[in-house]
Design goal:
This protein is 73% helix and 0% strand. The chain is an all-alpha fold. It has one domain: de novo design (two linked rop proteins) (Up-down Bundle), CATH 1.20.1440. The longest helix has 27 residues. The relative contact order is 0.16.
Length: 125
Amino acid sequence: MELIKTHKDLKVYNLAFEAAMEIFKITMTFPKEEKYSLNDQIRRSSRSVATNIVEAFRKRRYPKSFVSKLSDSEGEAAETQVWLEFAKECGYISEDVHDELYQKYDWILGMLINMINKPEKWKTL
């Protein structure tokens, strides 16, 4: 098992950060009229997944706080999936791009749920 010293050592954090950066790049191509709606919303929710993971990691000694922040991250990941659905249906992203990013968020959700179900494992890192 790899030693986890900071949030940057967490696979779930790295995947969430990577996915958020991919979303940022693709939203640069969205129409200007989406700037204050879809653009802002999908960027905010995707970034929030990663930032809530960081906050959870810092609160890992307190199981209820740890789980609460991970639950926030889980909700933001699911919200990001909905925004991806809108982007696909509006024709802003291809089905392939949608499917790839949606799958990443499925992996992120799975990892978050595993962490939520076993908070004691993370307490002493």
